[in-house]
Amino acid sequence: MLRIADTRTGRFVDVPSAHRHLLRICVHLPVIGTGDGAVHLRVPLVGDVLARTAELHGLEVLTVLITPDLPPEQARALDRAMSALGIHPPAGVGVHGLTETLCAAADVHLAEYGTPGQDAVGGVWIDVGQVSPALPDEGAPDRGHLPVPEGTDPLAVRMLLVRHAYRTPVTVTGAALAEARRTLGQWRQQVAAWAQEPSRPIPADVLRQAHAALADDLGVPAVLDMLAQVAIRPDVPAGAKFETFAFLDRVLGLDLAREVGHRHPVTP
Q1: Which of 32, 12, 219 is CA-nearest to residue 108?
Q2: pTM (global) more than 0.85
Q3: What angle do the packed helices 204-215 and 238-252 form, to 10 degrees?
Q4: Which residues contact 182 (CB under 8 A, 6 or more apart)?
Q5: E strand or H helix at 219, and its extent?
Q6: DSSP-assigned beta bridge partners for residue 126
Q7: Which percentage of the chain shows pLDDT scores above 70?
Q8: How many Å apart are CA 161 and CA 39, to the nearest integer?
Q9: Residue spans of alpha helices (H) in 163-237
Q10: CA angle, 25 then 34 then 52, to 5°
């Protein structure tokens, strides 16, 4: 069972309620801006992580995305940006103010912090912290553009964002993005190296801790910290490290097995 904190009450709620095996998620894309960049995609990214976590726990998930009324070109750009960040396509798409019935029966609503309408819907309401892009040598955040160098793997942006608890505001700097790129590249090389060794089961304590962290208000940062420790644990065989990273990547969505098949030296 997943426990999520309802923003309106501050209390933890089991989702889905009762004994059902279908979790219905409604993602409200922010109205501000164009909606086609990573600044505006943290809400659907958190919805994607929630859906992946629910599926890991054996639930079926139905996600609906509610967007501003975008022109066709902008809607296609939104689809491309979501795909680049590894966000699974929603089961349905509606427009703000026109198709609220799509989300009438949602178990969970996700929206950017400060979005109105909390009292108009049922289910759990989750506020997602805003993303403020800022160049490291400038004091004032600029909400228009992320400091992402050309050619940067978009999943490095995903890693940077999921490193923070979903309610916490994030300021994206060049240094933070560089660190995410470095860690992502290192983990992919390690996973490729571990894949060359015989498979071993995921350690029971690691599996238990990961499930507990994810079930408790989407504790993805704790999972990332745990993976960093697993990577250097001498008591965990390489094959078990591979299975651990591959299994939890089903939630993280970082394509950690991308380098499998390329030769990399085996690391501890």
Answers
A1: 12
A2: yes
A3: 10
A4: none
A5: none
A6: 110
A7: 85
A8: 10
A9: 174-194, 204-215, 220-232
A10: 25
